[in-house]
Amino acid sequence: MPYLNKYILEKVVEGTFVKENVDELCWTLTAKKNYRPEGKCVLPGKDAFRLWCLFIFLSEDRYPLVIIPDEVEYLLKKLCMAMSVELNCVELEDFISQDSVQQNGFTVWAFLEMMNSGKLTRGIAKETISMAVEEVYREIVGDVLKEGYLWKKGQLRRNWIERWFTLRPSTLVYFSSEDRKDRKGNIQLDGNCCVEVLPDRDGKRCMFCLKTLTKTYELSASDTKQRQEWTTAIQTAIRLHVEGKTSLHKDLKLKRREQREQREKRQEAKEQELQRLRALQEERERKMAELELLKEAQRQAQALLEQDELHRRQQHEQLQQALEIQLKQAEEARASMQAEMALKEAEAERQRTRIKELEAMQQRLEEALQQEIKARQDEEAFRYAQARLLAEEEEKMKALMSLREEQEEYIQRAQREKQELKQEMESKSRSLEEAQNQLEEVRANRHRVDQDVVAAQRKLRQASTNVKHWNVQMNRLMHPIGPGEKRSSGGGSFSSFRIPSQKDPGLRLRQKSDEQDEESKENVESRGCESDKRLSTNGDMEIP
């Protein structure tokens, strides 16, 4: 059929041959080889041919010819509608569910085998099936839009006669009877034709008219429904002729195909959308899984951070405690250092005061030395005048005796002062012992200031050397120079003036300064006594 349609039938002018005869020839050639009804045959040969023609009409435009399940369902519904029965969809779905049908669609022989099986037409008479097949065949293949009896008003006699009308896209033919053997007329339909509904008159009801350019045909249907169907069918035929279409069902087939394609496109788009949604869902699930993993990792990291933070806080607290302990120790050390510095400052202040006192004492010693020198000069003058004073010896002896008495009183006073000094020395010794006891108590703290003590000892030795030097100088100055005597470099009777050495190097400066004060006082007093004794001795010696 594709070959005939493309290379032969399309070149033939329509109306110059009967297409049904060509279809019968093709059926005769193909049915002998492929159509083999088995067992009880439901369809007679004529109905099988018509179903074959319907299959060819509704099949897809590709070779080998197949019909899709939607068109099969459409054809079966038309047949069931013609038979006024309901389609058995269960049997149809069972047949459609076969693998061969699902993959390639129905072949014409599989379709005829299904119709011959009787599953879809169970309980229906063969005559009813044949009539339904013929009706559907004429409607789809024969392009018959509408058939039936109508009353027609004559053009000449103006009487009403019942005729069998057959409506096709370009013509409306009417016959004398249903067998369509005696054709009474043919009405050509074009764009100038129209249909109008007429009111009831002349005893006729459900009237309508078909107007052409030349004539107006008055028609009457059996009821209002038939009139509506006929007017609609005629208007459809006119529309098809105006649009240049020769077959209504070809147009419907194309529309169904377009709808299927659109539905398939929508289905494909829907499937693509579903796939995209599934992909998005999978992506979302994957992202949710990744998010869960990230959340879990974040929770683990948060736990690790909390542990690290807790450990860091503990370390910080421990470090803070250690720093507080060190700070307390540093503050204690600072306080002790400040106390030691205060002690050292006090000691330095005492040293500075002592130095000032020593300087004042030195100045007084220098003044005493000047007075002694002056006294010696006076003594020399007295010696030179001694010879002249022999005459006055008695008077001087008396004066000397008085002087002796004064000297004895002075000696007694000096002894009493010595006794007082001795008692003071004993009290100072006791103080020294107490100081030594205190020294023993503070020896535990001596190790931290050994270097300072060593420096203080060095300064003390320097001060002692200076004191010794000044003592030597004072001894030299206080030693009376006799006639013809040379001033010895040694200390003479003042050689016993020593600063007692301290065996304990950790002795405090205060004790040394106190001892130096006491020794300096004793030295001054001893020097004064010795000078008085020397004066008295020299006086005794010179008196005889």
Summarize the entry for a quick read.
It is built from 13 helices and 7 strands. With 544 residues, it is of the alpha+beta class.
What is the fold's blueprint, element by element?
Elements: H1 2-7, H2 19-34, H3 45-58, H4 69-83, H5 89-96, H6 99-104, H7 108-116, H8 126-140, E1 146-153, E2 160-167, E3 171-175, E4 183-188, E5 194-198, E6 207-211, E7 216-220, H9 224-243, H10 248-384, H11 393-442, H12 450-478, H13 509-542
Antiparallel strand pairs: 1-2, 1-7, 2-3, 3-4, 5-6, 6-7
One letter per element, helices H and strands E, the order comes to HHHHHHHHEEEEEEEHHHHH
User: Helical segment tally?
Assistant: 13
Kindly estimate the percentage of residues that lie in beta strands according to DSSP: 5-15%
Number of strands: 7
Strand arrangement, major sheet: 4-3-2-1-7-6-5
Model regions low in confidence, pLDDT < 50 over at least 5 residues: 487-507, 531-544
CA distance, first residue to last residue:
194 Å
**Rough outline:** rod-shaped
Indicate the structural class.
alpha+beta
Rg of Cα set: 79 Å
Largest sheet: 7 strands, antiparallel
> What proportion of the residues is helical, as a percent range?
55-70%
Query: What is the averaged pLDDT score?
Result: 78
Oligomer: single chain
